[in-house]
Design brief:
alpha+beta; Heat Shock Protein 90; 5-stranded mixed beta sheet; 6 helices
Length: 207
């Protein structure tokens, strides 16, 4: 990755940006580092493969976060989602499509980063658990509001009995809630998953 010069960077000065960044570092980065530190004391009992996966995921998350925060020309939601989908396609054996509705680039950088992180986790869950042959990401963005759906044609699940993993509860729902939005998960056996992310005034009124 090409290093950035001082002319390429900006100072994070908005109180809202600082608050979102603080919560992000506390909720995810700090927890991951503490887990890794504790695993180091377990010796032979540590799940080293899990530690490595967590460290790699956190490194990726921090790279996206820092690029979005300090880049003087932050990427919009459409461009960011294209990058997320391209990254996911490098690991997936199924087809992933990105469909864009109206996009006015009105979201701030940190909101864009958090939405992208939720989509990335949804795509990871689809790759690992859905058994899908196709996943479609749809997004629209207008007047500082966003609607994003991630839909797969996989095996689905019964949410009444299924055990929800950390990815759905923390990386997807918590991200949207931190932004004042919501994340809805719809699925049934044989019907795949549809994850709907809403951020902005319509999302709050709908919630």
């Amino acid at each position: 990755m090409q290093s950035k010069t001082s002319q390429d960077l900006r100072v994070v000065s908005s109180h809202q940006e600082l608050e979102v960044l603080r919560r992000r570092l506390h909720d995810t980065t700090l927890q991951t580092l503490e887990y890794i530190a504790n695993a180091g004391t377990l010796g032979a009992g540590a799940d080293l493969e899990r530690v490595m996966r967590l460290a790699a995921r956190e490194a990726t998350e921090l790279r996206y976060l820092l690029e979005g925060v300090v880049d003087d020309d932050p990427k919009g939601l459409a461009t960011t989602l294209r990058s997320v989908v391209d990254d996911a396609m490098a690991f997936a054996e199924h087809d992933i499509q990105l469909a864009l509705g109206p996009m006015d680039s009105s979201l701030d950088a940190l909101t864009t980063i958090e939405i992208a992180g939720a989509v990335r986790e949804a795509l990871t869950n689809a790759r690992k658990h859905s058994g899908a042959s196709r996943v479609v990401v749809y997004a629209e963005e207008q007047d500082c509001c966003a609607l994003v759906t991630v839909t797969d044609n996989g095996r689905g699940a019964d949410l009444a009995t299924a055990r929800r993993g950390l990815g759905l509860a923390h990386s997807i729902k918590a991200r949207c809630e931190r932004l004042g939005g919501s994340a809805d998960i719809a699925t049934s056996p044989g019907d795949g998953f549809k994850i709907t992310l809403r951020v902005g005034a319509p999302a709050r009124s709908a919630a």
